[in-house]
Design a protein that fits this description.
Strand order of the largest sheet: 1-2-3
CATH topology of the largest domain: hpI Integrase, Chain A
Low-confidence stretches: 308-312
CATH architecture of the largest domain: Orthogonal Bundle
Largest sheet: 3 strands, antiparallel
Number of strands: 3
CATH superfamily of the largest domain: Intergrase catalytic core
Mean pLDDT: 85
Number of helices: 13
Distance between the termini: 89 Å
Radius of gyration: 24 Å
Strand content: under 5%
C-alpha cells in the first residue's frame, strides 16, 4: 500500500508543472511551499479544505492584517484549482473572506531636484573615480529616464544595448515579454560612456552583465542596490510623500510615467493614443495599469481636471453659438 501524498509533494509537483510552462514567480512559489509545510506539520490529510487555508492565512507567525490574510489566500487560489483536478472534494474559501486583498498605494513622485540630488550622491561613493560611483549613477539615471523595472535593469547584458540605433532590448521583463526601448540621445550617450568606463574594469562581451559589481565582478544584486539606495536617500534627507512606509527604487518608474503623462496633458496630446504607446513602452500587461495614474496621482488629476474644464467651456461656447 503506497504512502499518502504529503501536501508538500503536491505543491512541488504543481510548481514543477508551472516551471515547465515558463512561470518563474519565486515569491508565490515560496508561499505555496510554506502553506504545504504548515498543512503537513498540523497533520492535515485528504483533500484541501477551506479551514486549513484560513488557518494558514491567519497564522500568528505573520502580521495580523486582514489585507495580508487576503493576499495569502489569493496566492493559494491557482494551487487549489490544480488540486481540484486531481483530488475530488477539494475546497477553497469563496469570495473574499477577509475583504479586499488588492490595493495600490500612492507612490512617492520624485521632483527633478530630488533625482539630481540622488545622482549627485552616487558620484561621492567610494572609491572616488572608481567603477562603483559610475555604475550606480548610470543605473539610477537609467531607471529615471526610461521607467524600466529595477529587475529588468539588473538583468541587462551588454548585447542588449544598441548605441547605433539608440535602443535597449529588455529581455528579462515581467510576464516573459521582451520589448525594445528607443532611448533619448542623452541616455544613449551616458550608456556609451559607462561601457567605456566598464571596459577598464571588467568584461564587456555581449553576454556580460551591463551593470557590474566592482566587488564581485558579477551582476549587481537587488539587495545590495536597495540597501545603498536607502542609505543615499537618508544621506540627502529625502522626505517620503507617498503612502508606502518609505521611498522606493520602484518609485522612479512611477515618476517617469507620471512626468510623461503630465507633459502630454500640458501639450494637448491625444491622451488615449499616447497611453497605449506608454503602456507598451513600460511593459504593462494591461492598459488599465497605465490609466491608474490618472486618478491616483494628485498632480495628474489636477492637470486632467484643468483640461476637462477647458473642454467643457469650449463645448458650452459652441452650444450658445
Amino acid at each position: 500500500m503506497s504512502e499518502p501524498r504529503t501536501v508538500l509533494s503536491l505543491a512541488e509537483a504543481y510548481l514543477a508543472d508551472r516551471r515547465l510552462l515558463g512561470f518563474t514567480a519565486q515569491s508565490s512559489g515560496s508561499q505555496i511551499k510554506s502553506f504545504a509545510r504548515f498543512a503537513d506539520d498540523v497533520g492535515h490529510t485528504g483533500p484541501l479544505t477551506s479551514r486549513i487555508v484560513l488557518l494558514w492565512a491567519k497564522d500568528e507567525a505573520h502580521r495580523a492584517s486582514p489585507f495580508t490574510w487576503g493576499q495569502r489566500v489569493n496566492v493559494l487560489r491557482p494551487f487549489a484549482c490544480y488540486l481540484a483536478d486531481i483530488e475530488p472534494g477539494t475546497e477553497f474559501p469563496r469570495g473574499a473572506p477577509f475583504g479586499r486583498s488588492r490595493r495600490r498605494l500612492a507612490p512617492h513622485i520624485y521632483t527633478q531636484e530630488e533625482i539630481d540630488a540622488l545622482l549627485s550622491a552616487t558620484r561621492r561613493l567610494s572609491p572616488l573615480h572608481g567603477l562603483r560611483p559610475a555604475t550606480y549613477e548610470t543605473l539610477f539615471g537609467l531607471l529615471a529616464a526610461t521607467g524600466i523595472r529595477i529587475s529588468e535593469a539588473l538583468h541587462l547584458q551588454c548585447r542588449d544595448f544598441d548605441p547605433v540605433q539608440g535602443k535597449l532590448l529588455v529581455r528579462w521583463a515581467k510576464f516573459q515579454k521582451t520589448r525594445a526601448l528607443p532611448l533619448h540621445p542623452t541616455v544613449t550617450t551616458v550608456l556609451e560612456q559607462y561601457l567605456r568606463r566598464r571596459a577598464r574594469d571588467g568584461q564587456t562581451n555581449d553576454g556580460a552583465p551591463f551593470f557590474l559589481s566592482s566587488r564581485t565582478g558579477k551582476q549587481l544584486r537587488y539587495r545590495a542596490v536597495n540597501d545603498l539606495f536607502r542609505k543615499l536617500c537618508l544621506d540627502i534627507g529625502l522626505k517620503n510623500r507617498g503612502a508606502h512606509p518609505a521611498v522606493r527604487i520602484h518609485d522612479l518608474r512611477h515618476t517617469f510615467i507620471c512626468r510623461r503623462v503630465m507633459l502630454w496633458h500640458e501639450s494637448g496630446v491625444d491622451i488615449d493614443n499616447a497611453m497605449m504607446a506608454l503602456s507598451t513602452y513600460v511593459g504593462h500587461a494591461n492598459l488599465t495599469d497605465t490609466y491608474w495614474y490618472l486618478h491616483a496621482i494628485p498632480n495628474l488629476m489636477a492637470v486632467a481636471a484643468g483640461r476637462f474644464e477647458t473642454f467643457a467651456g469650449q463645448r458650452e461656447e459652441v452650444r450658445r453659438g
